[in-house]
Amino acid sequence: MSAVLRAEGLGRRYGKRWALSDCTLDIPAGHIVGLVGPNGAGKTTLLKLAAGQLTPTTGGITVLGGSPGAGPGQLAKVGFVAQDTPTYAGLSIAEHLKLGARLNPGWDDALARERIERLGLDPARKAGKLSGGQRAQLALTLGLAKRPELLLLDEPVAALDPLARREFLQSLMEAAVDQRLSVVLSSHLVSDVERTCDYLIVLVDSRVQVAGEVEELLAAHHRLTGPRRDPARLPADQHVVSASHTDRQSTFLVRTDAPIHDPAWTVSQVSLEDLILAYLHKSAATRRRPALEVQR
After folding, report:
1. Three-state secondary-structure class, residue 176
2. Quick one: angle between helices 109-118 and 93-103, nearest 10?
3. Which residue has the higher pLDDT, 258 or 86?
4. What value does the mean pLDDT take over residues 281-296?
5. Which InterPro entries does the annotation name (predicted)?
6. Which of 119-128, 213-222, 273-282 bottoms out in mean pLDDT, i.e. has the lowest?
7. Per residue in 192-223, is it b (16+ CB within 10 Å) or e — as a string?
8. Average pLDDT, integer, range 221-243
9. 269-272: long-range contacts (C-beta < 8 A, 24 or more apart)?
10. Rounded to two decimals, what is the model's pTM?
């Protein structure tokens, strides 16, 4: 399957500070991708580079086979909803749709109006009078009506209440199926990734810690509990992601494609939350604990 986004040694610097450095990624088409990482990992910078809003300082990036922002044709292929779900407070919903039609040659006005009607929103209502969830849905409508091949979402529901968040994500999943969209959803909420995404990327300090289809990743990771043991004594094909010990017991989260036959171990499955946190904690071993929220 072709890649919708490829990055090789990608970096972006602001003055003396690197917001993203040495990032290498290969995101396949046809997925809702969860891009997860602590604050400062470079998620927003990566998405802005992919959308053509920023240019790389080092390395390269291609999106849908082209250079981000390289002309109207390339821009039309990519939709981007920023973290603050930007809308214009003084414009009505109808005026937002008119603006979208003027700015996007592939605009699907019927889709936009049908979504607004289905959401029960008054087209005459000013965006500044909408709730946070309604503004997020308006921003999503603008992104979808553009009819992109790839939709980039930068933590679009982080500030929403649980019900509005669930409704937004449900709308996203339905649209991804109906429009055969590829989606990259940046989030620091594990529950959103669990509910929505079928492909996972954990990004820490610009480096990909793990990437793959969620089902395959869960099948390849196991929790081992048994008598205390040095990790170095585990088989070479059991990659240790995390380890904890008491005086008599060891618990490991390992990645392996091979069966685990050692009878000393109690083997159990891991949740997506367990997997994500294990990779984040591994990468943050010499730093303070990363800020990742687990919300239901």
Report:
1. helix
2. 160
3. 258
4. 54
5. AAA+_ATPase, ABC_transporter-like_ATP-bd, ABC_Transporter_VariousFunc, P-loop_NTPase
6. 273-282
7. bbbebbbbbbbbbbbebbbbeebeebbebbbb
8. 95
9. 269/218, 269/222, 269/223, 270/218, 270/221, 270/222, 270/223, 271/194, 271/218, 272/190, 272/193, 272/194, 272/200, 272/214, 272/218
10. 0.88
With 80 as the cut, is the pLDDT of residue 85 above it? no
- Take residue 110 and report the two structure tokens written for it: 């019927």
Q: How far apart are CA 57 and CA 36, in angstroms?
A: 23
3-state SS of 115-140 is HHHHCCCCCCCEHHHCCHHHHHHHHH
CATH code of domain 3-214: 3.40.50.300
Find all residues with CB under 8 Å of 217, minimum gap 6, and list them.
200, 210, 275
Where do the H-state alpha helices sit in 17-131?
43-51, 72-76, 93-103, 109-118
The whole-number average pLDDT for the span 139-144 is 93
Identify the bridge partners of residue 201 per DSSP, sorted by sequence position. 35, 211
